[in-house]
Amino acid sequence: MAAAVYADHPFSLIPTPTYKLKQENPDYKVRPLQPDLFDDTASEMALVHNMMIRGLNAIYLQAQHIKQSEQKDFCKFIINWHLLLHLHHGNEEDQIFPIIEKMAGVTGIMDVNVEQHHAFHDPLDKFIAYTNDVIAGKQKYDGAVVVASIDEFGPLLVTHLADEIPTLLGLREYGLEKMKEMPTLLSQAAEHAMKGLGLSGLVWCFANLDAHFEDDMWLSFPPLPAPVRILGRTLFWFLHRGMAKFGSSDRHGAIRALYAAGDVQPKVEVQTDDTKPDAAAKPEN
User: Fold this and answer.
1) Cβ neighbours for 126, distance < 8 A, ≥ 6 positions apart
2) Taking a C-beta distance cutoff of 8 angstroms, is the pair 33, 222 a contact?
3) d(CA 193, CA 190)
4) Is residue 210 part of a domain?
5) Residues near 18 by Cβ (< 8 Å), separated by ≥ 6?
6) What is the widest separation between alpha-carbon atoms in the chain?
7) Which residues span the domain enclosing 172?
8) Could you tell me the CA-to-CA distances from 242 to 58, 69, 225, 248 in Å, in that order?
9) Contact 53, 213 (CB under 8 A)
10) 214: alpha, beta or left, given left = phi > 0 and alpha = psi -120 to 50?
11) Whole-angstrom Cα distance, residue 285 to residue 271?
C-alpha cells in the first residue's frame, strides 16, 4: 500500500504572525504578547493564502494519478481553486490596495504586490484555459501538462503569497490611527469574495481549510454564519462531493491524506523573503 501523501508540500505553508508571537514567547500562556491590528490582518491573509497553497499542492500531487472517469471532477477542483485566487487578487487590486494607499497617504506602496500578480498572470491564464477546454471536451486531460504548468507559474505565485504578509506587517510604520479601518476593509472584501465563490467555491474552501492549523489557534476561521458553515459541510458538500474529494481536508476541517496522490518535486524553488540569499532561516509551522 502506498504511503499517505498530504498537501503540505511541495509549496510551503505560511506561518501566521500571531502564531510567531506565541512561538517567540515561551511564557505565552502566562504573559501573552498581544497581537496588534497588523498582526491580526496579516495572519488572516496568511490563512486565506494557505488555502490556496494547499489547493495548489493538492492539484500538483494528484494530477498524474487521476482516473479517466474522474478527470472532469478534478478539473472542476482546479477551476474552483482559480476562482478563489481570481476573486482574491481582483479584490486586492480594485479595492484593498487603493484604499490602503489612501489610508497611509502614500501612493505606490502596494505596487510591488500588483507587479507580482502580473508575473504569473500569463502562464496561469494558459493553464486555466487548458483546464476549461478539458471540461468542454476540446482537449484530452494530461496530468503531465498540469504539473508542467504549475512548475511554470507555481513558484512565482507562492513567492507572492508569502511576500504579501511582511508587506502588510510593514504598514505598521504608518501608524494605528491611519490604518485603523484596515480590518473592516479586509472583512468587506472577504464577504464580497465569498458571494462570488458560489456553492461549489464555498465547498472548495472547506475542503482546503485546516481548522487545526497552528495548535487549534484558528478554529473560528473563517468567520461565517453558523448556517453557512453547517450547510457548507453537509448538504453543499454532498452536492459537490465529486470535486471535494480531491481536497486536502475532510468536511470537518481535519487534514487528510490526498485521495489520489504521488510525490512530485517542483523544478523551481520558491524564493520568499525568508529563503532569499542571506535571509534568516524560515521558522517551521
Assistant:
1) 149
2) no
3) 5
4) no
5) 35, 39, 40, 43, 217
6) 61
7) 36-198
8) 15, 11, 25, 14
9) no
10) left
11) 17
Whether 166 is covered by a domain: the verdict is yes
Per-residue confidence in pLDDT tens, the chain, 285 aa: 468 999 999 999 999 999 988 877 766 555 556 788 999 999 999 999 999 999 999 999 999 999 999 999 999 999 999 999 999 998 888 888 999 999 999 999 898 888 888 889 999 999 999 999 999 999 999 999 999 999 999 999 999 999 999 999 999 999 989 999 998 888 888 888 888 999 999 999 999 999 999 999 999 998 888 999 999 999 999 999 999 999 999 999 999 999 998 666 656 555 555 555 444 443 333
Q: Does 284 reside within a domain?
A: no
Residue 137 Rama label (left phi>0; alpha psi -120 to 50; beta)? left
- To which residue does cell 506565541 refer? 22
122 by Cβ neighbours in 10 Å (0-12 / 13-18 / 19+) ranks as exposed
Q: Which three cell numbers stand for residue 31?
A: 504573559
CA atoms within 13 A on the CB side of 172: 12
Is 51 within a domain? yes
Length of the chain measured in residues = 285
